[in-house]
Amino acid sequence: AQHYNVPGWGAGYFSVSDKGHLVVHPHGQPGPTIDIMDVVEDIRERNLGFPCVVRFQDVLRARVKAINEAFGKGLVEQGYGGKYFGVYPVKVNQMREVVEEILDAGAPYHYGLEAGSKGELLIVLGHNTDPEALTVCNGYKDEEFLRLALLGRKLGRKVIVVIEKLSELPHLLRLGDEMGVEPLIGLRSKLTTRGTGKWEGSSGDFAKFGLTVPELIHAVRILKEQKKEHCARLLHFHVGSQLTDIRVVKDAINEGARVYAKLRKMGLPIEYFDVGGGLGVDYVGSHGGNGNGNNAAPGVTIASTVNYTLEEYVGDVVYNLQRVCQNEQVPEPHIVSESGRAVTAHHSCVVMNVFGHIEIGSQEQITAASVADPNESKVVREMREIVTGLTPRNKAEAYHDAVAKKEEALQMFKLGLLGLEERAMVESLFWKLCRDLVALNRGKKRLPRDTRDLGDKIADQYMANFSLFQSAPDHWAFDQLFPIVPLHRMDEPPTRDCTIVDITCDSDGKIDRFIEGEGVDETLSLHALEPGQPYYLGLMLTGAYQDVMGDMHNLFGRVNEIHVFVDDEDPEDFYIEEVIPGDRIEQVLSRMQYGPGDLARRVKNALDQKVKDGAIRPKEGVQLADFFEQVMRGYTYLAGV
Ligand code: PLP
């Protein structure tokens, strides 16, 4: 179990049971536990099919509570003058059940929502009904978007329109006059502090959103000219998602706090200081280590790990803001944060079944090739001699000779001088040499250069029933790491080095960077597949962005989904509150403008013709047409494998 670093990334919500199963502690530890294999059993009994997203709604609630209470505690500890009002950015996961659960868990803290588009604002206006909670509107806005926000003001809600570009400001003021309601205005500042990695472009002068300092000054002028400075209530900035280095957080707060102080002194009664998102998730569980057991060098950060805790983040936000406010002698504003990833990542995972593996140079092939044939050609014999002559001292030489011999055999084959079976012998002997080399290299520090990553090259490919593009698009797009663990058998030592391939017809549909121990590796240690026995993997921490950004590559559609709750009567038990079936094939076909009825008719007509021609018996024709329609009504992923 130590291979999978569950305590590292599990953040107290996951651990390995004595049975070697992955278990969830939805309220943290100690507390009730759910054995994920019991959930798998339930999915099987319901004939739902894999892959399946499993949401632990209690984990979502626990995250909302943890963030709000961390801020609550941080404010008290530092004797801070303002309050905390968090908002959840719905773009991170817009599912109704997710948003409802977050609002319900956040109600005691007046936790609000953030919207970045008209669609999201419709959701937020429908659901965020607490007049004390904030609604923050980010993103570029057209007239409809602005009118929707003002509609929210008419309902008595605290809807704040964040000005992302200057032209939105006069537009909003005009519409406010027209609709007879005063807007609440936020100003987004482009800070020079930059995040690192993938999202560093979210800040700096050339960022897509926000106002530069001259534009902020211009905004103040517009507000004053129109006698609307009292509407300016919030200062916003966002330096990027998944901030991996706490120093960036400190810098951003310091810079943002100075901007706040100066705007206050210019007469804007700003009462909310919105630090945006960015609170990171330690997907690797190495606490900022770079995967080689070292701490990440200054400025070099690994996007999948972070070097701070929630408490440290909160402490730094509160402390740095307070320090600047005291120094500048301005009131301490209420603190707003827009954490999405840190709220949602832990609560959901994708459960998938492994249905086979591709082994390069399988044991059977190697065994067959190991028996010498007295009549075999010279090239086969010479390859055999290279393999049998391998010693710890001639590793590099043997490998180079074998590569050359394999190439020679290929050339001979192309010229018709070598048969298919003999070519197979040469290749199998080559793979044997590779396996022997990997065994000789194991545990050694100084390895011949060309043989260093042989182990990764000859790793097994485990075929898992999922689409990377649907379920973990960020891994495909920019190597974001997600923990992958077997959901069972963790009490047995894993014996196979593997990579994972998905079922799309795309060679990019693979995972070959994994969390191993506290580091990162090109292969993952998994258990040998046992004939007839299912093997289940969990793709963990997928609750942020992945659930809603996935695409339909190869027409693999949305995944089945279940929502699991702890049973309050029996803390060792759980119940499934909701089952949301994934896309059926006919649904994804319709989205591509195919009429499922039309396709069925076309195939039925073709079958009828064959029946007429006497090529197919009528009964078989009917059965085949029924079968076609049955597939169309089925799940888009592999069934019965
Ligand atoms: N707020 C804004 C303006 C954002 O652009 C984002 C995402 O990038 C977030 C909040 C959420 O950030 P995170 O998921 O890192 O908390």
Layout of strands and helices, then pairs:
Elements: H1 6-10, E1 14-16, E2 22-24, E3 34-35, H2 36-45, E4 52-56, H3 57-77, E5 87-89, H4 96-106, E6 112-115, H5 118-127, E7 134-137, H6 143-154, E8 158-163, H7 168-179, E9 184-188, H8 213-225, E10 232-236, H9 246-265, E11 272-274, H10 310-328, E12 334-336, H11 341-344, E13 348-358, H12 363-370, H13 378-388, H14 395-414, H15 420-441, H16 454-457, E14 460-464, H17 468-471, H18 473-478, E15 484-486, E16 496-501, E17 510-511, E18 514-516, E19 519-521, E20 524-526, E21 535-539, H19 546-549, E22 560-566, E23 574-580, H20 585-591, H21 596-612, H22 618-633
Parallel strand pairs: 4-22, 5-6, 6-7, 7-8, 8-9, 9-10, 10-11, 11-12, 14-16
Antiparallel strand pairs: 1-2, 2-3, 4-13, 13-14, 13-21, 15-21, 16-17, 16-20, 18-19, 22-23
Helix pairs in contact: 3-4, 3-10, 5-6, 6-7, 9-10, 12-15, 13-14, 13-15, 14-15, 21-22
The chain binds pyridoxal-5'-phosphate.
Function: Catalyzes the biosynthesis of agmatine from arginine.
Protein name: Biosynthetic arginine decarboxylase
Pfam families: Arg_decarb_HB, Arg_decarbox_C, Orn_Arg_deC_N
List keywords for this structure.
single chain; 641 residues; alpha/beta; ten-stranded mixed beta sheet; 22 helices; 16% strand; globular; binds pyridoxal-5'-phosphate; decarboxylase
